[in-house]
Write a structure and sequence with these properties.
7-stranded parallel beta sheet, globular, Isochorismatase-like_sf
Length: 224
């Protein structure tokens, strides 16, 4: 990659960001009535205490997602839509801690799904030891055992890390197998964190754009 001149880069990037924001302002709203409930699944990604309520990676923005995820979870129960909840769950030896502070250690409260979502229940819990839940054998087994599923509604955190990785890998999986599937990400049901150069708003916008250009169906909201 060529190192660009800063002023030129900032000017061009500003124009690009404005264009992306214009696109995101026009995203559609999806209704559950448009979805075949018996062929759909709600995927709850990392709505754990370690991202929402306590620990080194706790984010207020993630905590604020809890009511929306609970709302969608309850709707899915009513419609008999299957649900999966991924939960970060690491050992002390996790190489991921070379990139991130220690978080969500197995057996601690941080690795538990938040009580509000846990109390609704009804999901298959899959623990994950990396940022990409698709890589977990338990998920691939679930996918094989549920071949009728062709619509995935993704919620949780972080938009630019675990959500984006899972969404684009899932999309690529169906592309590779020449199968039609919808991978839907409602923007008001995902979020990320603010920390230094990791600007939450910028990361959300760029993650949404990257998912869109990879065939993920990014929408404003999903409602009854």
């Amino acid at each position: 990659m060529k190192i660009v001149e800063k002023n030129e880069f900032i000017q061009k990037s500003n124009d690009t960001l404005l264009s992306i924001l214009d696109m995101l302002e026009k995203l559609p709203v999806v209704r559950f009535g448009e979805i075949e409930a018996d062929k759909a699944a709600l995927i709850i990604i990392d709505m754990t205490n370690g991202f929402a309520k306590e620990g080194a990676l706790k984010s207020d923005a993630v905590e604020e997602l809890i009511p929306k995820v609970c709302e969608l979870s309850a709707i899915c129960d009513k419609l008999k839509i299957r649900k999966i909840a991924f939960a970060d769950c690491h050992t002390d030896e996790s190489p991921e801690f070379d990139a991130y502070p220690k978080h969500c250690l197995k057996g601690t409260a941080e690795s538990e799904i938040v009580d509000e979502i846990k109390n609704i229940g009804g999901y298959t819990l899959i623990e994950k030891n990396s940022t990409n839940g698709f890589l977990e054998e338990a998920f691939r087994n679930w996918l094989s055992e549920n071949p009728d599923i062709n619509t995935f509604i993704l919620t949780g955190d972080c938009t630019d890390i675990c959500v984006q990785q899972f969404a684009t890998t899932l999309r690529a999986y169906y592309n590779k197998n020449n199968k039609r599937a919808r991978v839907i990400v409602p923007l008001n049901a995902v979020d990320t964190y603010d920390l230094g150069q990791h600007d939450r708003n910028l990361m959300n916008v760029m993650a949404a754009y990257n998912m869109i250009i990879n065939g993920v169906e990014v929408v404003e909201d999903i409602i009854e």
